[in-house]
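Limitations
The structure tokens in this dataset are predictions for the assembled complex, not deposited experimental models. Users should treat interface geometry with appropriate caution, especially where small molecules or nucleic acid strands are included. An illustrative entry is reproduced here so readers can see what is and is not provided.
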Amino acid sequence: MMVENTKGTEDVLMEIRNVDKAFGGVKAVDNVSMDLRAGIITTLVGPNGAGKTTLFNLITGELSKDSGSIKWLGQPINRIKPFQAARAGILRTFQDLRLFSEMSVEENVLTSIEAGSLPLPQTGNQRAARQERVEYALSRTGLADKRKTRAKDLAYAERKFLSMARVMATEARLWLLDEPASGLDPHSYEKFLEILREEVKQGVTVCIIEHNLDIVIGISDRIAFLDRGRLLADDEPQTVLNDPALRAIYFGERA
Amino acid sequence: MEAYLLNLVILISIYSILASTLNFIMGYAGIYSLAHAVFFGVGAYAGTYAAMHVNASIFISLPVAMVAGAVLSLILALPALRVRGEYFVAASLGLQVLAVTIFSEWKSVTGGIGGLVGIPPVNVAGLDIFKPGQFVFLTLAALVIVLIIINRLVHSSFGRSLRAIRDSESAAAAFGKNVPLIKTISVVISAALAAVAGVMYASYLSFINVESFKLDTSVLIMAMVIIGGTGTQAGPIVGAALLLLLPSLISYLDFLPQTEIGAIQQIIYGLGMALLMIYRPGGIIGRKKHSSAGKE
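Predicted assembly:
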């Protein structure tokens, strides 16, 4: 279900309206409304604890909202469970990767595109199509030589790429990436950016949480700025990055 | 001597079925059950009931036992698998305790504490099988079939889903896996196959009572899996053989005071288990070093 290159048309894929989530007395996500537009990269920035990962968890149903609504392709998905979100075409990665650590690289990718629950045999066509997706993801991420290696035995950067490969092999329309480039060496993150740009060109829509400003500037079509659960800005990259108030929050937090 | 060896091989085959089916959920799905002896027992009682009241054909008793095991496992799996792992262990322990009471009290089906005697020999296509020399082939065949089924499952997309859930439940769900459903199916398959061991056991001994299906049996089966190697195919069989052979081996050691043999056996078990877990936490067949680095 690949979308044609929709860059420029920017249809709204996901509509987030007045979403709230509190943990105890702390508002982790505070009345957030935003749109995720098709075929572009929206970057979520903001200090630690701003609610970025919580927003991902609310979208995929890992956490339930206190109030507000989310629509996906025009349909409400307010009570969706994580596995249903995935089947609906919304996939996410985790900051702590959560690879299937005892399984091989190839199995990690293969199992990510096998969503059926019943122990039924696959047809030859299914198997071939899946293998093709696996090969694609492995070769794009440079993991083809490591296919038999257990995930836990990979080097750090390889583990990050495996986390990406699992998503790349699927046919999801929306990728929610939680700090996929953090801790990568310059060479690896160049490769990462290239992969991401290429995938977006192919029609994937991306929402990415990222701290590294070089990467933020390098890839964002749009930037959403969160602080203490509130959405302070959702605009063109230059507008957000040049806003002195936002710069103060962002760099103030880091100093 | 030959009869003695045949008896050992038959029992090892039956316990290998139990250990392998427990390993299927423990080693591949990360579901720890202390109720495996319940499904062993349900298989034995249900198979016996069918053999005594309907027909002694294995084509009757075996399906009846498997369905009974599967249905009962749903009672455990449906509520317990919606919550996290530790609760399943507790729930399975509860089922084990409850089942022992039922096995002891439901006299019309289980014969109560006294159990059931005079269980007819299993009938395969018109042939009564009761001589150990024949029965050994039946249990070995059952073991091989169970192993093939498990092997096929483990290497299918279903098996990958199980292992993915074991390694990271949240990531498995994030990639579209209906975690509670997949876990439930795995428990049902495991219970149905464990019931096969029950049918073999009952018709081999032609006598069963609750003593064989208590918590100690569940713990023994779990020990077989852990000692042999969790998550490996050969491990549970090695574990079953070792734990069933050990008592006989110890009794051959003449220099041990024969009156204290029971206590010595316990000491050797305990010591062996502790040493194994320190030096080979993956079990005898398992990987040498089970590094925890990178576990997510």
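Some entries come with short summary sentences. For this one: The CA atoms of residues 14 and 75 of chain A lie 9 Å apart.
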